[in-house]
Amino acid sequence: MQVEKNQNRYSFEEEIANVATHGVGILLSITALAILVAFSSLNGDVWHITSTSIYGTTLILLYTASSLYHGIPYSRAKQLLRRLDHAAIFLLIAGTYTPFVLVSLRGNWGWTLFCLVWGISILGVVLEIVSKKRYKRLSLGLYLGLGWIILIATKPMLDSVEAGGLILLLGGGLCYSFGVIFYVWKKLAYNHAIWHLFVLAGSVLHFFSILFYVVTC
Fold it and tell me: Which GO MF terms does the UniProt record name (predicted)?
């Protein structure tokens, strides 16, 4: 098993758990996209539809890239998928911000955050695709920093989003952040599957924040 883990990073059993956890994420993401677009069409306008479509698409991309990466044997394709998996994290962070900044905030704050978040995310995607691990720590720092950059707009968010939505948004961010502990805990068996569960939990909390406090509020 140790030789197998040296090549594939995770044992066969761990990879099954990794695929299963984010395979569920694919199904939930497709459902989330359908629900958000449907309710946006009924209750919102083009901003609601566009922003939730972006968010739902980035959800699907993340869980699909992750499942494909963990689901195929060690190969060059697996290494490429690993980069795409990590790049998709940046896209999901930006996608999650999009409904809040284009619907709840909009105006100067909304568009400033939109450009800032997507600009940093695109930089992160480029680093992941071309770096071959050279900027691993920088990428991790960008993930966390980007995830909490909304704090610079605390007052506008308090004025624009109800308390319940902010609590769900904060809870999702904490799930992602605490999950990083297990992501870097390489010696723990099934550490990556546990990280996946935290990601799923964060996604669920953010979905409900967007559904109830951005789309149908």
Answer: metal ion binding; pore-forming activity
- Tell me how many domains the chain contains: 1
Would the annotation count 70 as a binding residue? Answer: yes
Say how far residue 6 (Cα) sits from the centre of its chain.
27
What is the CATH number for 77?
1.20.1070
Q: Is 48 annotated as a binding residue?
A: no
Flag whether 196 is marked binding. yes
- Is residue 30 within 8 A of residue 203, CB to CB? The reply is no
Residue range of the domain that includes 121 = 2-215
Any residues with CB less than 8 A from the CB of 148 and at least 6 apart, and which? 173, 177
Of 141, 126, 145, give the one whose Cα is nearest residue 83. 126
pLDDT digit string, tens, across residues 162-178 = 999 999 999 999 999 99
The answer to whether the CB of 173 falls within 8 A of the CB of 202 is yes
Model pTM score: 0.91
Q: Specify the DSSP element, H or E, that contains 21.
A: helix 12-43
Give dist(CA 26, CA 71) in Å, integer: 13
pLDDT per residue as tens digits for the range 31-60: 999 999 999 999 999 999 999 999 999 999
